Amino acid sequence: MRRIAYASIAVVPLIGIAVFLESPRSLDPASSPLSAALRVLPPIGSARVAPAEEDVLDHSLTDLLRVVVCRQTRSGACEPVDVFTSTSGSKKKDVLRLQGRRYRVVWQPDEKAPRSTYEIHFDVAGLEIGFIDYAARTRRAVPLAFTIDRHPRIRGRALHAEGFTATQNAHALREEFGLDLDQVFHILSEEDYPLAETASALRDVFGLEGAQPTAQILKELGLSAAEVGTVLRDVFGLDAEAAAQIIEDIAFSVMDVASVLRDVFGLDAEATAQVLKDILPVVDLATVLRDVFALDSFSAAQVLADLGFTVSDLHEILTGLYGLSDICVENAFLALGFSDEEFLWITAGQYVSKYAPVLAFDKKANTFPMDAQKWFEEMLCGEEGGPPLNHEGQ
After folding, report:
1. Which of the four pLDDT bands, split at 50, 70 and 90, describes residue 166?
2. Would you call the peptide bond into 43 cis, given omega within 30 degrees of 0 as the criterion?
3. pTM score, whole prediction
4. d(CA 86, CA 65)
5. Whole-angstrom Cα distance, residue 340 to residue 301?
6. H, E, C per residue of 145-209
7. How far is the C-alpha of 391 from the C-alpha of 380, rounded, in Å?
8. Least confident range of 18-27, 31-40, 124-133, 138-147
């Protein structure tokens, strides 16, 4: 027989189960460990089930329960020796069944190793609830009796295993346990329902109104921009532009917005820029082209030019964002189809200021000539503030 090592959700010693489960009503059902729902009864365990606690017992798990008995080996592994389910054997004593207020099956320790240490694992539809250690002293048959209290995580697994949709599961969890949206979301997520089904369930069961409020809540629940974008597309039927606006409005980063357009909606660089041009400043848009789509300076400038951005915008991007020299910028402009005059119109100002001549009479002069514009206006309009002169200067 192949030896396997069992992984447990919670390693709870036998006495710990009995003590921990004395007051199940004091536990938060959404956050209490699964082992808190398990009570192993005598003679294997020492937990008790009081009549007053019958309403917390889960009687619905018979067909989903499995008990696995494995023997501890010297290597630390746990070698399965018996598995019990509701259909596990031909003999009545070998079948796991509900008797009154407890689940029960008769277990016969291994006759080849009557004095062995065993682990007894309990799971519901593959979800391990917990396990206990048991040291067998004889090979005498013993009843395995236990109960499982109602627990939202176990209920979520049971309903999923029985074919309930995410919406049906969410409704049941809310009605039976009074769970809030956050708690239901985490249980549905652990059950690996498709994201669109989970989002639809939250919308329908908790009455979420509109795409943006739903997206905001999903972001607060920890979903990524791509996941929120997928919900906006698949649940609300939004196109790329509407989804991008919402993702930007709920404070995801510029890079997140662009990544959603690329990864969720399948847009290329130019199509993404087309969507974002009215949402983002040109520098942010160029940063998206560089960092999300890995465009070089010329390719980014080409996309921006095709979208109608000005020469001044392109000059800012090429010099500021890409750090190109004026010579490289001029070459890029010419390659993009701009004229020398358009390049000079943007760049000449700095050279005019730098190289413009300054007129002075000599080194000893302490004043400069009067402003020519002021003289020109006085020639046309007379003394400052006076009526305009006629064409003869009168």
Report:
1. very high
2. yes
3. 0.74
4. 7
5. 17
6. EEEEECCHHHHHHHHHHCCCCHHHHHHHHHHHHCCCHHHHHHHHHHCCCCHHHHHHHHHHHHCCC
7. 9
8. 18-27
C-alpha distance from residue 125 to each of 98, 101, 192, 329 (Å)? 16, 20, 14, 66
b/e sequence 106-139, b meaning 16+ C-beta within 10 Å: bbebeeeeeebebbbbbbbbebbbbbbebebeee
Residues in the chain: 394
Residue 138 is predicted with a pLDDT of 76
Whether residue 191 contacts residue 157, with contact meaning beta carbons closer than 8 Å, is answered with yes
Q: What is the pLDDT averaged over residues 230-251?
A: 96
Q: In the structure encoding, which two tokens stand for residue 25, read together?
A: 């009503």
- Model pLDDT, residue 23: 35
In this model, does residue 352 exceed pLDDT 90? no
- C-alpha–C-alpha distance, residues 156 and 211, integer Å: 26
Name the residue among 286, 300, 283 with its Cα closest to residue 336. Answer: 300
Residues 6+ apart with CB under 8 A from 108: 82, 139, 141
